[in-house]
Amino acid sequence: MSSMDLERLKMTGAGRAMAVLTSGGDAQGMNAAVRAVTRMGIYVGAQVYLIYEGYQGLVDGGDNIKLAHWHSVTNIIQQGGTVIGSARCKTFPTREGRLAAAFNLVKKGITNLCVCGGDGSLTGANVFRSEWSSLLEELVEKGRITDTLAKQHDHLNIVGLVGSIDNDFCGTDMTIGADSALHRIMEIIDAIMTTAQSHQRTFVLEVMGRHCGYLALVSALASGADWLLIPESPPQEGWEDRMCSRLESRTKGSRLNIIIVAEGAIDRSGKPISSTYVKDVTIMLVNHCSSNLTGESHLTPYAIFHFSSKLGVEAVIALMEASPGTPACVIGLSGNHPVRLPLMECVEMTKLVQKAMNEKRFDEAVKLRGGSFENNWNIYKLLAFQKPSQSESNFSLAVLNVGAPAAGMNSAARSAVRLALAQGHKVYAVNDGYQGLANGAVFEMEWHSVAGWTGQGGSLLGTKRTLPNKHMEKIVETISKFNISALLVIGGFEAYEGVLQLFEARSRYDELCIPMCVIPATISNNVPGTDFSLGADTAVNAAMEGCDKIKQSASGTKRRVFVVETMGGFCGYLATSTGIAVGADAAYIFEDPFNIHDLKTNVEHLSEKMKKDIQRGLILRNEKCHENYTTDFIHKLYSSEGKGIFDCRVNVLGHLQQGGAPSPFDRNFGTKLGVRAIQWISERFQENFRQGRVFTNSPDTACVLGLNRKVIKFTPVAELKAVTDFEHRMPKVQWWYNLRPMLKMLAKYQTSFCEYVPGEIEHVTRRSISIDSGF
């Protein structure tokens, strides 16, 4: 979108009225979406109304429909639920209810409506839109509005945002609230693990998902659960005996067993399988096993995934660009970008899933859930039911961590080790990265060596930043000594740069002519060849939680501004993403140059806001954003210039962002990347095995395994060299940079949207949903 397009948007928005409502169940992230819709609407010159209590408020009208101002949505981004309320409405599904709703909107001049809810709420919105003309005609006939007023409001534009913790809406990779629900589930699993291990117990955990097993599936994959029951793929007859047999065999090598049951789990005949029944079965059939039942129920959501703000901004742009002939659309997430999806295509595809389940076409139901769901299910089965191979292959591989510790490293190592062992490969672990490889710190891994690794943060293998260049002779010696046929390197920029050095040394050492794969893992998210690195999501959540607590500490005090330093090296991803997630007033990063005049403008802008209704301000600074404008300098500048208006405090988040348990995304993503890496390495083994050894020197056998938009792909390190800024240790072009205008707009800066990339229209077909997004 060019800046001229933004001016056109402002001209389009000027004088127009729009409204936003939340409907159905509440979902964490709804408030972030409401805030973004409200502020973007005001930014483009529209009048924005908040509709309280969902469709019920729309039908009742009156004080339930209120004109919003910029500060109406201040300090709501971190709150759970929905501050504008959501109520079940029996009236809106009737013609009389929709007639009342239309009257209330026309009275306010509203012809643009953003609805945040599930498929039922969005379907209702589409019905409302399709009947709009006839509803206005009826209002004219009854004398409730004039014919002139009806002509002035002759069409209604609808845009939907999907709010559902179940992630059960086809077309979008992730619904608002799903990530937060996963955080809560993983918190519970992590909490019960110590108890289960202490007493050698089996825990049965029931999670929400009446018609969709997404939460159960991803939490099972992320925790390494021993048994899983979901509605899309009921177990075969006699599953009780097979489950208990597996649990009994597991108790010989593990003190912990976890069974996860979706609340909508059924057997092949459609009969519900309750968590209570599963508990009773385990107690009755498993020897020396006590079973505890834990319910997830309706829990307060945990984290706000910053994409809610992106979706909210895109919803306003879609409304402003809509014409009478534009079909109702939903703003979804495709990879890491917002897209516009035809509403009824999504709804019809979602209905096909339930239809397939009702007709007991369960394989079809799994496919219709989408490529990500199907791949998650296949990987869960692969890891849950595999055993170490009894026959050895001719191949061995070494797994090592390189760079700073990052959440998700252990998940990737666990899945890689187990799949490699299941395929008969010998697996070596290397302590302390390339330096450990040079020193011969190598030991053989067994199946139970990685038990319980999924939920642990940091690097259990040990990691260092040392690059291989100075130790090449010793590394080659170790590879030869242990007859290592491939390297799997899990780590950050040093992991990538190290493999590049090893690749370039192939011409001197035949021992390095083996497959090498890098799984990016760093909180900085600065590895070329991928949009997301393991650890970055956990780091954003940790930084966001820290910022929320910092702001909360000033509750009830005088006006205060916090200057918070984030990690990330020269890469500003962490500061930018955290800034969007917490509603920061500014985020200073290296990629977006600034000078003293910019700092002065920011201070003056914040001072004006603090003179009015704002009580707290938040300034983020990436640790290496500027050589001279340090965190201390910015703190002193804000303190001095804001004197008499606000006081200022400084906080350095530091290594807080590295520690803690991995987020569900990092556990799941790491598990999937570990599996995919071993599959790729095994393929290279078969292709390049000759004369008793693996030998390959082609560029496509030394790769970074990354997620690019929606595609998990292998990119040769030799190819990535040209797009890498080695001085600042990051890619030359970064996808997230176009989020910067949104961050500034939401902080009330007049900014150009020339870098903003608007969502494209994507049709929802079986082919489009078959792609695995990585989530």
UniProtKB/TrEMBL annotation:
InterPro entries: 6-Pfructokinase_euk, ATP_PFK, Phosphofructokinase_CS, Phosphofructokinase_dom, PKF_sf. The keyword Transmembrane helix does not apply. Residues 18-277, 397-681 form the Phosphofructokinase domain. Its cofactor is Mg(2+). Its EC number is 2.7.1.11. Belongs to the phosphofructokinase type A (PFKA) family. ATP-dependent PFK group I subfamily. Eukaryotic two domain clade "E" sub-subfamily. Catalyzes the phosphorylation of D-fructose 6-phosphate to fructose 1,6-bisphosphate by ATP, the first committing step of glycolysis. Negatively regulates the phagocyte oxidative burst in response to bacterial infection by controlling cellular NADPH biosynthesis and NADPH oxidase-derived reactive oxygen species. Upon macrophage activation, drives the metabolic switch toward glycolysis, thus preventing glucose turnover that produces NADPH via pentose phosphate pathway. PROSITE patterns: PHOSPHOFRUCTOKINASE. SUPFAM superfamilies: Phosphofructokinase. One of its GO terms (molecular function) is metal ion binding. One of its GO terms (biological process) is fructose 6-phosphate metabolic process. Pathway: Carbohydrate degradation; glycolysis; D-glyceraldehyde 3-phosphate and glycerone phosphate from D-glucose: step 3/4. Keywords: Acetylation, Allosteric enzyme, ATP-binding, Cytoplasm, Glycolysis, Glycoprotein, Kinase, Magnesium, Metal-binding, Nucleotide-binding, Phosphoprotein, Transferase. The lineage of its organism: Eukaryota, Metazoa, Chordata, Craniata, Vertebrata. The keyword Glycoprotein applies. GO terms for cellular component: 6-phosphofructokinase complex; membrane. It catalyses: beta-D-fructose 6-phosphate + ATP = beta-D-fructose 1,6-bisphosphate + ADP + H(+). It is an enzyme of class 2 (transferase). It is found in: Cytoplasm. This is 6-phosphofructokinase.
